[in-house]
Amino acid sequence: xxxxxxxxxxxxxxxxxxxxxxxxxxxxxxxxxxxxxxxxxxxxxxxxxxxxxxxxxxxxxxxxxxxxxxxxxxxxxxxxxxxxxxxxxxxxxxxxxxxxxxxxxxxxxxxxxxxxxxxxxxxxxxxxxxxxxxxxxxxxxxxxxxxxxxxxxxxxxxxxx
Length: 161
Description:
Elements lengths: L2 H14 L8 H17 L1 H4 L2 H27 L16 E6 L7 E5 L2 E6 L10 E8 L2 E6 L9 H4 L5
Helix pairs in contact: 1-2, 2-4
């Protein structure tokens, strides 16, 4: 096969890694790109398709088993730990839009505003509240009890109101 065919096959394998992110198909693409280079530089290899396929499989296996453990850390995404609520539970925030049991409002916390709900309390704009927990992209809040809600300037945004 021509070197250009191996190059196209290699790029297709590498692109298909985005569809099946197991970080295996990538190495078959690398093997095909190396095969493209080899067929361009070594004419005797270019004449035998079965030999090319055997060499490609060997190159792919060698790169897979030899490089995967080193390269996997570069391509690994970070996992978001949604269960760690310690960074905001018990912290205080400032109400920016009124919150009632019937209607969610908004709070200011760490420099941004968040949707906030309450069970049976009413909070007006400017009131300080304590975060009980996070549910998805919103917070459940309660009345801030003096001394229990930890407060820092960047969390409650006192200077905004």
